[in-house]
Amino acid sequence: MLEVTGEDTGRLIMHLHPKDRSAPSIRKDYFLPEGRSLADGWHTISLDWSPNKLTYLLDGKQVWQVLGKQVPDEPMYLVMNLAVGGDYPGNPDKNTTFPAVFKIDRVRILGNS
């Protein structure tokens, strides 16, 4: 649903990975106003998923929308983690702050099944 990298906490990176792994993923970067950071406090991240429409929201504000055939029509799962290193965004360096913290206050998933 989203990623925030430690070197640019003012950028929210949203992804949509298709079921067919050989097909290209689509993404949208949303930049907070100058000087703001997603690390500065609590935020509400939302994804409203309805037939043929995905609406991504940050603190109640729409920041991306995907329409039509690109919208999945299959079961999904949620992964939440604090990843460090690897190909994306790269390995930590001397400027990386440890320990790193990823705080989640609550998760709510609503749906019709």
Topology, element by element:
Layout: E1 2-5, E2 8-16, E3 26-31, E4 45-50, E5 53-58, E6 61-67
Antiparallel strand pairs: 1-2, 2-3, 4-5, 5-6
Protein name: GH16 domain-containing protein
InterPro entries: Beta-glucanase-like (IPR000757), ConA-like_dom_sf (IPR013320), Glycosyl_Hydrlase_16 (IPR050546)
Pfam family, one: Glyco_hydro_16
Main sheet characteristics: 3 strands, antiparallel
- Helical residue percent band: under 10%
Segments where pLDDT lies below 50 for 5+ residues?
none
Taking all residues together, what is the mean pLDDT?
88
Number of strands: 6
Order of helices and strands: EEEEEE
Number of helices: 0
Structural class: mainly beta
Could you tell me how far the N terminus lies from the C terminus, measured between alpha carbons in angstroms? 21 Å
Strand order of the largest sheet: 1-2-3
Total number of domains = 1
Question: How large is the share of residues in beta strands?
Answer: 25-35%
Features:
113 residues; 34% strand; mainly beta; 3-stranded antiparallel sheet; 0% helix; Glycosyl_Hydrlase_16
